[in-house]
Amino acid sequence: LSNENLATGEPLYHQVADRIARLIVGGTYRAGHRVPSVRRLSGQYRVSVSTVLEAYRLLEDRGVLEARPQSGYYVRSQERPPEPLKTTSCSEATELDVSTMVLNVLRESNRKELVPFGAAVPSPSFLPTSRLNRILAQEVRRDPNTSQSYDAVPGLPSLRIQIARRALEAGVTLTPDEIITTSGAQEAVQLCLRAVTRPGDTVAVESPTYFGLLEALESLHVKALEIATDPRTGICLDDLEEALDKEGIAAVVLVPSFGNPLGHCMPVDRRKRLAEMLRRFQVPLIEDDVYGELAFTPRRPPAVKAFDTSGDVLLCSSFSKTLAPGYRIGWAAPGRHFRRVELLKYSASVSTATPTQMAVAAFLAGGGFDRYLRRLRRTYRDLMQRLAAAIGDHFPEGTRVSRPEGGHVLWVELPSGADSLKLHAAALRHGISIAPGPLFSATGRYRNFMRLNGAVPWSERVEDAVVTLGRLVREQLGARES
Amino acid sequence: LSNENLATGEPLYHQVADRIARLIVGGTYRAGHRVPSVRRLSGQYRVSVSTVLEAYRLLEDRGVLEARPQSGYYVRSQERPPEPLKTTSCSEATELDVSTMVLNVLRESNRKELVPFGAAVPSPSFLPTSRLNRILAQEVRRDPNTSQSYDAVPGLPSLRIQIARRALEAGVTLTPDEIITTSGAQEAVQLCLRAVTRPGDTVAVESPTYFGLLEALESLHVKALEIATDPRTGICLDDLEEALDKEGIAAVVLVPSFGNPLGHCMPVDRRKRLAEMLRRFQVPLIEDDVYGELAFTPRRPPAVKAFDTSGDVLLCSSFSKTLAPGYRIGWAAPGRHFRRVELLKYSASVSTATPTQMAVAAFLAGGGFDRYLRRLRRTYRDLMQRLAAAIGDHFPEGTRVSRPEGGHVLWVELPSGADSLKLHAAALRHGISIAPGPLFSATGRYRNFMRLNGAVPWSERVEDAVVTLGRLVREQLGARES
To answer: What percent of chain A has pLDDT over 90?
Structure first.
């Protein structure tokens, strides 16, 4: 802090006071908190002790601080908010409405007062949270030095062994040294994208597709070519083949098992055809398998990676939908692109957090995961049927819903003329979060669609939320007709 | 798994056996482990039960598996390794020698048999590991639902409050809503780079500079312009000004406080001049402050961000050097680029791991961090002096060392003709890891330099390692002269 830097003409102690007031308005210090001592702040801001003292007295006069004898200055509880301030830094004004909405939908999942149909986040009540947390505590106590140390890429060996074993369930033969652990599947997919594309490239994706993928592509300056996707069988292979033939596609990114938002499951023969087609065109596939273990059938489908013979399928997944989203544990098996993804992982975040890797590895090694998963899959299947039935009961005629074969999201087509962006705003006012359709395309499509998260314990409140949503849609349609 | 996909002409049960053998060679299943039951593998690979049975019997004949009655097939302890296999996926052959060495140096820090002079990783013995782990266990027990849930960007509020308060020590006025938590400073710097550059841009960096930054730039297709850097006062401002004037620099990335590898501290008047210069050219500064709290003087220097009035300084730091590298908790205060960095964080990894954020926040809120830091800084100062003195005693004449004013790395210039890449290889054979000079430049400079990590408890073994390194350098120089 110095006069010449601010050039406002105000006395220095006013500038100091303004900065402290800004910290209080902004929440760095709150009512009842002690602000730094006069001596300390003098050192921190490199101004004299008397300047700080004058600043604190000014804030005392304004009713922002109070002096407590022998103790220092404290933030007073504010009846009225302190006066507004010049901000020295602020966010850019942007046009990124879709991105803003994506972040908002994600944040809404943490607002306990909302019915969380928006983000695809499982309710904590379905997850083995206390067991997992207990294992976390045990693991860091068992091996404190490992837990606090960098875990060098490609990731914690004990976790990679467990992941390799589980991959067999998807028909995929993997050894631990073919696996890289990541901060969730989102990081895995992004690193794989960076490994097989360059800025300016085009990749083929499903339509509708997960908004996190669209955000990742935009951030990498890679274009998305949206290919029509059947709500039962997945991406149209004829259209994809045509695109591969004509358009110079650098890679394909799919969620073949219980795709988000459709919940579809690509049949096995189509998976084989897809693998063969991509091999023929020598185009890599990034296969996001994050919902793969949440099949409603007794056995999960094989990954497309199971039919990969060229090493050009980059398989990505995580434990965010099955164990703990907040642990941020995902992984990639990038085939022949391993080396490049490993380097990208290092340059992106050095390594994945060690304690949460240890906990997930120990949880999986401890057994019981399959039994737990079977129960979880039944729970989700029942909830999705219930949600679909409630929509049938309470939404206007002409509403259609997907028939997910796994996962925990429902894709809803509202009667033409309904507007899910407006519905999102109206629903929020009624304490309900939804994910509006236009988030699932880069081209503003799906205005009369929405995705609902079904991993919510059923209750009267949830049923009421469906009733309210149906009513809001009816009101929209009525207003349009009048 | 199916015949048409493999097209090898081998019987199917041979292919199954090969895959299982590959899993055993690769470590997915180890000696004494039970492999999947016949029925389960039949489902996983979609082949008949009898095919799996034939495959397991073949592996039994080869001595790889053994059948235990009523229990299943187990991996036998191998006297001789099983026969080599066709691998279906492998890493690309690449020319990235520097990148390989970077990953190796990082991995060496986890090899307990080595004296860890290589990576800049603090020894666990200096860090408050057991207290931090205890707090981690307490926090996830206190609030299990939060601990397992996504922490939506910009990051855990309680942690951002603590970071904002600590920023005052660097003379920086921050509110929690100006801070984004990240997976370590590496992610923070990379996200800030992506926010202010585009592929093809050039950024100005110190020379020598941290290899993690060079890897990040390469991965982003951004060029590094290396500016001469004084080992006491930092980057040459005249050269930087000339480059800003002529070269179309998109951003500057610096470690002004105890730069890696020089350990220098830019004087305050130069920080002011730098801030003014960048404002004039309207070029953003990414300020990596990861060593800022490790000053050897009683008070840490102010961040350049303290003199920022335009919001164009993006301040990045972490708790990897002061609390726990493996927790992966860093942060960015990107000024007016906040919104863009927040979106990039979401698209890169959704959010930072929740449990480790909770633990760091609670650790900082609990008090005592400053007292602990004071002790840590004294420890590092003493160790660095000791390391420098030992080099003076044991290295050949003409060796020079940096005089770090903070942090825990020493930059060593060996007599001309010495080769630190060869030294790295020779030292490893003697159980010592170092970071060779060429890692710190994109242009192959610094062949006769190396960086030593000083955050290693002093011992006879460590002193012996210095003696050995000195001897190896002498041998190199002797061999050259003979």
So the answer is: 87
C-alpha to C-alpha distance for A120 and A456, rounded to whole angstroms: 10
Neighbouring CB atoms inside 10 A of B27's CB total 14
Query: Is B19 at the interface with chain A, CB within 8 A?
Result: yes
The pLDDT score that the predictor gives to residue A100 is 86
- Please calculate the CA angle A204-A207-A212 and round it to the nearest 5 degrees: 80
B41 vs B44: CA distance, rounded Å: 5
| pLDDT reported for residue B176 | 97
Is A351 a residue whose pLDDT tops 90?
yes
A residues 150-189 lying closer than 8 A (beta carbon) to B: 150-153, 161, 164-165, 168-171, 173-178, 182-184, 186-187
Q: Could you give phi then psi for residue B315, rounded to 5 degrees?
A: -90, 130
Instruction: Give the pLDDT of residue A90.
Output: 34
Q: How far is CA B256 from the centre of its chain?
A: 19
Rounded Cα distance, A180 and B232, in Å: 40
Instruction: Name residues 196-215 of chain B within 8 A of A (Cβ).
Output: 198-199, 212, 215
Cβ–Cβ gap A147/B169 under 8 Å: no
Q: Find the mean pLDDT for residues A451-462.
A: 97
Residue B37 has pLDDT above 80, yes or no: yes
Is the pLDDT at B334 greater than 60, yes or no? yes
| pLDDT, mean of residues A349-364 | 97
| N-to-C CA span, chain B | 61
Tell me the residue ranges of DSSP E strands in B183-312: 202-207, 223-230, 234-235, 251-254, 285-288
Closest listed residue to residue B303, CA positions, set B331, B280, B325, B323: B331
Taking the CA of residue A101 and the nearest CA in chain B, the distance in Å comes to 11
Strand partners, B207: B228
Taking alpha carbons only, the member of B291, B265, B279, B268 closest to residue B335 is: B279
Residue whose tokens read 């300390």: A40
Give the helix ranges, DSSP H, for A157-292: 157-167, 184-196, 211-219, 237-246, 268-281
Cβ neighbours of residue B241 closer than 8 Å, sequence gap 6 or more: B277
Can you tell me whether residue A373 is helix, strand or coil? helix
Strand partners, B204: B225, B252
User: What pLDDT, on a 0 to 100 scale, did the predictor assign at position A96?
Assistant: 36
Range with lowest mean pLDDT among A43-52, A100-109, A387-396: A100-109
pLDDT, tens digit (0-9, with 9 covering 90-100), for B307-327: 999 999 999 999 999 999 999
Task: Decide if pLDDT at B266 tops 90.
Answer: yes
Q: Compute φ and ψ for A298, nearest 5 degrees.
A: -60, -30
